[in-house]
Specification:
Blueprint: H1 4-7, H2 10-16, H3 21-25, E1 51-56, H4 64-77, E2 79-84, H5 90-103, E3 108-110, E4 112-113, H6 124-137, E5 143-145, H7 169-178, E6 182-184, H8 203-208, H9 222-235, E7 241-243, H10 253-262, E8 266-269, H11 274-278, H12 281-290, E9 295-296, H13 307-315, H14 340-354
């Protein structure tokens, strides 16, 4: 008769091996293995070229000393211009523009924000478009649409306001007439809508931040919301849209490429989705080269210490290095080693082409 040990599988035998109490009680959230891989590394602390960050959020009313400190941080990163998407509207926008651009006139761009108050009024679209025009006269150089549109914005009847609600058409049209871009964030990563189970790639993030789950009884399907956004792009071909976060299609760049092919008025940016690019370096590099005229640099949450991971991913051919936020990506990143001509377009040339009023003297010819 065969012995018990002979008949057990290697995994079962491993489970029978005594381990320390710490290892027995450690959760998956605590597991942080230290890689033993030794490969050439070339960390980049400062971008190779001056760049425009088209996706940032700042308190436009920050005091002068905070503004000066922020500009020193920009200088250290080689960020020539920061786009503050949290510009608000009306008097608040004008106050923020006066504060930020009054002290550092070349270093900041302010985008206005849209108010959905009174959306049931028959003249809402006309009034909102007039407010946007007034905000542009007050210093706004673009319009930012937050993800609440299509998800949580409700009209006076309690109905969800879809991204392509016709009551907003006058605003999209007015932006085109004014020659300003609309940076639009629609929905969230698709796994937020999926079952929170062992197959969900964002399981750890959803466990740490349960409020990011998108249950079907509260939200329409991801594909529906995204389709509404794309319908807006189609209805307003003379308006420039910057589709935030790679349109949440960084995991399917071929599909994103099809979108860009279909709508020449649409651009995109890489804020908060760097981990999608760094896990597919060869295909992502090919994709960036093909769509080099349509992608802008963005970061989203302001954390100066995280920018070097972007620079390293975009500029080097380094292998197997850490992303800066584990819950977004438990995998390692690889550098895309983008050509200089692509880097220049990503870092500043594309932004100069579609965002009016940026001082060109801050950038190479």
């Amino acid at each position: 008769m065969r012995s018990l040990a002979y008949r057990l599988t290697p995994l079962v035998l491993l489970a029978l091996v005594p381990v320390s109490g710490a290892a027995q009680t450690m959760s998956i959230e605590e597991y942080e293995p230290r890689s033993t891989l030794l490969v050439p590394a070339s960390p980049v602390k400062r971008a190779k070229y001056p760049f425009v960050d088209v996706h940032s959020h700042q308190d436009a009313d920050m005091p002068p000393e905070a503004l000066d400190r922020l500009v020193r941080d920009l200088d250290a990163l080689n960020m020539a211009v920061m786009v503050n998407l949290s510009g608000r509207n009306g008097d608040a926008l004008r106050r923020g523009v006066s504060n930020m651009k009054g002290r550092h006139p070349k270093r900041f761009v302010i985008f206005a924000n849209l108010s959905f108050g009174g959306i049931d009024d028959p003249d809402y679209g006309k009034r909102a478009a007039a407010q946007l025009e007034q905000d542009v006269r007050g210093g706004a150089q673009g319009l930012k649409i937050f993800k609440n549109l299509g998800m949580t914005v409700r009209d006076g009847q309690g109905r969800r306001v879809p991204v392509d609600d016709p009551r907003l058409d006058a605003v999209w049209q007015k932006a085109g007439e004014l020659g300003i871009p609309i940076l639009i964030h629609t929905a969230d990563p698709a796994p937020f809508w999926e079952l929170h189970d062992r197959f969900n790639e964002r399981w750890l993030e959803l466990k740490e931040i349960p409020s990011r789950r998108r249950p079907p009884e509260q939200y329409p399907p991801w594909e529906q919301i995204i389709a509404e956004q794309h319908h807006v792009f189609a209805k307003h071909p003379r308006t420039i849209f910057i589709n935030a976060h790679l349109g949440w299609m960084g995991n399917n760049l071929a599909r994103l490429g099809e979108l860009l092919d279909r709508y020449p008025n649409v651009y995109t940016e890489i804020g908060a989705v760097l981990a999608e690019l760094g896990r597919q370096p060869r295909f992502a590099r090919q994709w960036f080269i093909r769509y080099q005229d349509r992608v802008l640099f963005g970061k989203d949450a302001w954390a100066p210490e995280e920018y070097p991971v972007y620079f390293r991913t975009l500029e080097t051919a380094d292998e197997y290095f850490d992303y800066y936020r584990r819950r977004h990506a438990f995998w390692k990143l690889y550098g895309l080693d983008l050509p200089d001509e692509v880097l220049k377009k990503l870092y500043y040339q594309n932004a100069l082409r579609i965002i009016p009023g940026i001082d060109r003297s801050l950038f190479p010819n």
